[in-house]
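Batch manifest, entry 17 of 40.
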Amino acid sequence: MKKNIVLGITGSIAAFKACELIGLLRKKGYSVQCVMSKEAEHFVTALTLETLSDKKVVKDMFSPTDSREAAHISLSEWADLILVAPATADVLSKVAAGICSNILICTIAAADCPIAFAPAMNSIMFNNPIIQEKIEYLKNKKYYFIEPATGRLACGSSGIGRLAPLGTIVEKVENILTS
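Output type: structure tokens
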């Protein structure tokens, strides 16, 4: 049976990789619904994501849905998995604190399905003790993490913080959905 994935795209330079990720997930037979933060719009367009996913991108709390139900509730009930790739320090911190400041975080808060984060950020941010504390907190609450890769970062330095290879993300998604 086809599984439904809400793909949360946040304001990281790695947001452009969501385009290829959508293709890989759809090739595996998953239905992909994109939810993007306002910050993600600086890196990738809704039109591109809509074309690749064949679904209208949800960008705000007041996006119309097919039902009279609130968008975040509809999305959370539709999803078999919520995957946030890339996941920024901002989104991880807000989810850990329960701060529902946008449609993506509200959808996560309303969800009763597995939630996976694929962090992407500068290594200094990723290694920040506060961010590491939030990641550990979320792991202890049974959220899944797809660890970032080490290598050259957008800022020009090298270190941990690159979005995990897309094949690794797809493999982890498949493992979560079949466990």
